[in-house]
Amino acid sequence: MRLAVLSDVHGNAFALEAVLADLHAAAPDLTVNLGDTVWGGANPALAWALQQEFVPPTVRGNTDELVAGRWPERDPEQAAWVRAQLPADVPERLGALPTTAQVGDGEVLLAHGHPQDPWRALLFEGAPEAPACGPARRCWRNWPAGRPCAWCWWATPTARRWWPKGA
């Protein structure tokens, strides 16, 4: 299966349009969205509309929680501005998204950050060792070895494609 992962659009509709064009050309079997959909200033309304049409959010990101009102003490002015740009139902829809999802017949686990909390970093959590070793294995200790995990921690907006060369 050819899997494309979209993440951290942060309301940047202009960059999202370029990413969507690339995804269209690549024609993956499945595209998922790891959240942080609209928090930002570029064009949250258009970014939301494009994501709804082409790549609806699959899991909730940390800034989706801000839009949903889960952390009212964190940047209330920005939260109010973003909400004012969006259809009235968006905050509730974002807040209802799960923090994890499985795709590919359960072979791929999706999360915005740590599977239990999108505000927690998965790889760098309290460990002095290299990011790709110990901490990730501890976070995912119940996830079967050898199965892929997709999470985000990179800059906005991004799309990553996972599939074998030539597939």
UniProtKB/TrEMBL annotation:
Q: Which Gene3D superfamilies match?
A: 3.60.21.10
Q: SUPFAM superfamilies given for it?
A: Metallo-dependent phosphatases
Matching Pfam families: Metallophos
Write down the InterPro entries for this protein, in alphabetical order.
Ap4A_hydrolase, Calcineurin-like_PHP, Metallo-depent_PP-like
- For the Calcineurin-like phosphoesterase domain, which residue ranges apply? 1-115
Q: What is this protein's record name?
A: Metallophosphoesterase family protein
Q: Which organism is it from?
A: Deinococcus multiflagellatus
